Amino acid sequence: MQGAENLSKEQAHYLLHEAEGHNPGPWVGHSQHVALAAQAIAFHAGMDSLLAYTLGLLHDIGRRNGVYKIRHSIDGYRYLESLGLHHHARISITHCYTLKNMAQYNHMDDFSRSERSFVAKYIREQEYDDYDRLIQLCDFLGLPDRICRVEERIADILSRNPDAGPAHMENMKYKYRLQRHFELRMGMSLQTLFAPEDNAAQPASQ
């Protein structure tokens, strides 16, 4: 496997397809739409759109291990680290923790004690960059069948997690700040970029 920055789309899709064989589910379509959203935003923001695409495609790869809650973050980290994909492994954890607050997932914590300690230390030590922030945003935008608005995604998450606490709500609201950050960087709104009639979210050119 090539290094993280040189991972091709074909290699990333192979890994996702292999993972789907272990645990089929809507998370695969979600990952594909996160990748498309990340690619489009990165292209218009002057970032590496190929890297953004593969980071988005593999951000939930820990779900290959089965149906769990937040522990897919550390499962993905371990798996991608074992392949030498260090940047992708980092995103597997950081995409879950926008605010670096473990409490945001108290309602769905299925870590062991040692895993919880590891993740808490890991996110505390990371200096997030715009690739971390991009996948944190696009994780919200990608549904299994399309790219949606932040508001729609919040409603979807709340419908599935009615017991989410204040820290989780604060994390979701922060997505609006991420949206504004990338809209300023692109010089256009997400609504313009992801127009309903062009929801495949392909960049205009590459």
From TrEMBL:
Gene3D superfamilies cross-referenced by the UniProt entry? Hypothetical protein af1432
Q: Where is the HD/PDEase domain?
A: 23-153
One family name in Pfam for this protein? HD
InterPro entries associated with the record: HD/PDEase_dom, HD_domain
Task: Please give the name of this protein.
Answer: HD domain protein
